[in-house]
Design goal:
The chain is α/β, with parallel strands linked by helices. The protein has one domain (about 1-285): Metallo-dependent phosphatases (Purple Acid Phosphatase, chain A, domain 2), CATH 3.60.21. It has eight helices and twelve strands.
Length: about 290
C-alpha cells in the first residue's frame, strides 16, 4: 500500500490585493509576516509548485494521498478559490484524497464561521471529527485540532469530546489493519521536545495518553505544521512530519509511505523540489537529531 503525504502548501495571495480595509486583526499580523517576515520569499510562485506537486503525486501511482492542512496562507476567499481550481477534480474523489484543515485555513473567526475550508474541500474532508477512512488494509483516523486562535496565537486544541471519540475509534480498530493517525499539528518537535504553547496543541498530553493506552491501535502518526521534515518515536509509534511541500527556504517536499499491514511497518521515500529541473525528484528524508 502506497500513500502520499504532503502539507503546508500555503496558497498565497498578496495581502494588498484585498485592500487595506481587510488587513485588520490577525490579518495585519499575517501581512507583516508576508512583507517583513519573509513569507513572500518563502512562497514566491507557490501556485506553480502546487501544480507540479499534484502532478508528481499522481505520477507516483499511490493508493491514496493525504494533505494535512494549511492549504492557504490567511484563509482568504481568493486563496481557497484558486487552490480549489488547481486541485480540480481531485477534490471530488474521497477514495483517493483526504485533506485536513490547518490553522492557516481557520486563520480568523470569520473564516471559520463561514466554513470557507469546508465549502471548497468538504468532499474530501468530512464534517465530523475524528473520522476513520479505510483504504484497503489501512485505516486513516483524522483528528481536527485547528481553530481560529488569538492575535499572536497559532495553537491547536482537540478538546474532551474529540479525545473521547478518538479513544473509542482507535480501540475499535482491528489488529489486522494498519492505523495512521493524521492531524495538522505535531505532538513533539524534531528533537523530541514539546512544541511552544502558542504554536503546538494545547492538550497534546491527552492525545499522547490515548496513543499510549494499550487498548488503542496506532501504527503511525503523520502531520505537518512544522516546515521541516523529521521522524521521531512516541511510545514506540513513529511520528512523521512531512514538512512544507512548497516552502523554498527549506528542502521542501513530500513523503510517499509504503505500508505493510502484515508486519506493521512503514517505509518513507522523500520527494523534494528541484528548482533547476522545475519538478519534484527523489530526495533524502531528514531524521531527528539524536
Amino acid at each position: 500500500m502506497k500513500i502520499a503525504h504532503y502539507s503546508d502548501i500555503h496558497m498565497t495571495v498578496p495581502p494588498w490585493r484585498g485592500g487595506v480595509a481587510g488587513l485588520v486583526g490577525k490579518r495585519s499580523v499575517g501581512a507583516l509576516n508576508y512583507y517583513v517576515g519573509g513569507r513572500r520569499r518563502h512562497f514566491a510562485r507557490v501556485e506553480h509548485r502546487i501544480l507540479r506537486l499534484l502532478e508528481d503525486v499522481d505520477a507516483q501511482a499511490v493508493d491514496h494521498a493525504i494533505c494535512t492542512g494549511d492549504v492557504t496562507q490567511m484563509s482568504r476567499p481568493e486563496e481557497f478559490e484558486r487552490c480549489a481550481q488547481i486541485f480540480g477534480t481531485r477534490l471530488h474523489d474521497p477514495s483517493r484524497l483526504t485533506v485536513l484543515p490547518g490553522n492557516h485555513d481557520r486563520y480568523t473567526p470569520t473564516a471559520q464561521h463561514e466554513r470557507r475550508f469546508e465549502r471548497h474541500f468538504g468532499d474530501v474532508a468530512p464534517d465530523a471529527y475524528p473520522f476513520a477512512k479505510r483504504v484497503g488494509d489501512v485505516v486513516i483516523v483524522a483528528l481536527d485540532v485547528a481553530r481560529a486562535a488569538g492575535l499572536l496565537d497559532s495553537s491547536g486544541y482537540a478538546g474532551p469530546e474529540q479525545l473521547e471519540r478518538l479513544r473509542a475509534l482507535l480501540t475499535a480498530q482491528s489488529p489486522d489493519t494498519f492505523v495512521i493517525l493524521a492531524m495538522h499539528y505535531g505532538l513533539f518537535r524534531k528533537h523530541g521536545e514539546p512544541d511552544r504553547k502558542r504554536h503546538g496543541i494545547r492538550d497534546y498530553e491527552a492525545i499522547v495518553d490515548v496513543i499510549a493506552d494499550p487498548k488503542t491501535h496506532v501504527h503511525a502518526i503523520i502531520h505537518g505544521h512544522m516546515h521541516d521534515d523529521y521522524r521521531i518515536d512516541v511510545h514506540g509509534v513513529p511520528e512523521i512530519c512531512s514538512g512544507s511541500a512548497t516552502d523554498v527556504f527549506r528542502p521542501c517536499g513530500y513523503n510517499v509511505y509504503t505500508v505493510d499491514p502484515a508486519t506493521k511497518s512503514i517505509d518513507v521515500d522523500r520527494r523534494v523540489w528541484d528548482a533547476e529541473q522545475d519538478r519534484y525528484v527523489a530526495g533524502e528524508f531528514q531524521r531527528a537529531v539524536e
